[in-house]
Each structure stands twice: as C-alpha cells, then as structure tokens.
Amino acid sequence: MPPAPCTDTYNRVMTEAAFFDLDKTIIAGSSTLAFGRPLYRAGFLPRRALLRAGIAQISYVLFGADEDSLERARDEMLDLVSGWHRAEIDAIVTETLDDVIEPLVFAEALFLIDEHKRAGREVYVVSASPEEFVTPIARMVGIDRVIATKIRTDGLGRYVPELELYVMGPGKAQAMSDVAERDGIDLSASFAYTDSYTDLSMLELVGNPVAVNPERELRETAEERGWPILEFQRPVAIGPRVPSPPPKVWVGVAAGMAVAIAVFALSKRRSHAS
After folding, report:
1. Whole-number Å distance between alpha carbons of 28 and 234
2. How far apart are CA 46 and CA 40, in angstroms?
3. For residue 3, which phi and psi values (nearest 5 degrees)?
4. Given 8, 21, 99, 186, the catalytic residue
5. 8, 23, 68, 183: which one is catalytic?
C-alpha cells in the first residue's frame, strides 16, 4: 500500500500576496543613492564614487537600467563595501532614514499597501538593494516582509565581496517563488508592482502584474499584454507611523487605482470569455 499523502501539503491554506519593488515604485528614486551622501559624510564613500553614483542615478531615472549596467553596479558595490562593518552601516541608516527616505515615499504606494493589507494579503518588498537599506524602509511604510540582496559578512561582522542572495532580474522571481513555497502564497492570485523591464520575470510570475512608472520597454510590454500601468507622482511626508495623507490626496490616488484595476479585471474577463 502506498504511503498516505502529507496532510500539510494537501490541506495547506493558500494565501494571496502583493509584492512591491522598492526604487521608483515605493520611493521616488534609488534607495542606495539616497544613503550615498550620509555614507560619504561618514567617510565610507570617496567623492568620486558619490559623483559616479549620481550620474548613474540620472541615467536610471531618465532611461531605466538594463541588466548589464545593473551587473556592473553590483560588482562595483561589492568591491566598494568590502571591509565595511555592518553595525556601522546599520547605525548610519537608522540615523538618517527619516531625512533621506521619508520625503521620497509615494502616497500612491502607501494607499495600495494599505488596501492589500485590508484585503488580507501578505505584503512584501522585493528589492535588489542591500537588505540593510531595504528593511528599515519597508518598516517605515508598514511592511514587515522583505526579500532583498544579502552581502556576506565575516566572523567580525565586516562585509566580504560575496553575495549570499542576489535579488535582481530572474533572481527576484526565484526568491519570490521560494518565499511563496515557504509561506503558502498562491502566486496566481497575487499582485506584483515594479517600474523596470529587468523585473519582467517578477511580473510574469503572478496573476496580477502591474507596471508602475514604467521605463519605455516595460511600458510597451504592459500595453501589449493589457497590464495596468500606474503613474505614482505624489511623494508625501509620512510622519512617525504612516498617518493618513490629506483627503484630497487619497481621493486622487484611490480613483487612479480603482480605474486601473477595474480595466485590468475587465480585460481578463474578456480574454477568458473569448
């Protein structure tokens, strides 16, 4: 007689989730660059590295980032941080978080995060940025679950030029799949939000992909596939624990979200019916 099936596998209750990219999706810009100036003032970054990062950020905002440029940025980052002590970086991030990140948070992102929570979905931030930057920002906007790049440290807590986890491009989708398996997430009923074409596999992994402030290639792909396209334009001061923005902000945000999601749902129903 064959063994009885594992009841944990067959009786597991699947939940829905919403996965948010960080840069240009939850915040207006690059989280890594935002912490660049505090790191420079603390003596961790040479001026040349800060200027190079600024030029890269301008290019990123205007034209997006291809996979090759992100790979180069990864290698440069690993060389740069080698030898830094994690505890010191954590302290700088904690001290400067409110000043450098709070002004960048999109009101539209806060609205969507709250709506997904109200609907009972698990909410994750998924970012190629180091977890030392991503986790505090996620907590600032009310998200406890983080999937982010992890840099190895030695026995003294100093970074070495090796990655434990790289959450970029296909790595994002793989990390999401691993988390979905671990946490019992139904990806076919879940949502994903990102601005970058390099995250296409992240969007294709879920049943409800949404392009946010998309770069040109992602916008074209979203239009071809009938995915919602959202424009986040309202950075808002969120205060100590994410109080509600003014009613006028919420009304505009809610209207935009509702229209986009309704159009997407209608297109899916039509595609199923045809």
Report:
1. 9
2. 6
3. -65, 150
4. 21
5. 23
C-alpha to C-alpha distance for 57 and 125, rounded to whole angstroms:
21
pTM above 0.85, yes or no: no
DSSP string of 172-219, one letter each residue: HHHHHHHHHHHHTB-GGG-EEEES-GGGHHHHHTSSEEEEES--HHHH
Following CA atoms 224, 228, 231, 232 in sequence, which dihedral angle do they give, to the nearest 10 degrees? Answer: -140
- Residue labelled with tokens 């998200």: 143
Report the C-alpha gap between 196 and 211 in whole angstroms.
8
Rounded CA-CA distance 199/127 in Å is 10
Token code pair at residue 247: 């009613």
Q: Is 178 a catalytic residue?
A: no
Quick check: is 23 catalytic?
A: yes
- Domain 13-261 grouped into CATH 3.40.50.1000: yes
pLDDT tens, 97-143? 999 898 999 999 999 999 999 999 999 999 988 899 999 999 999 99
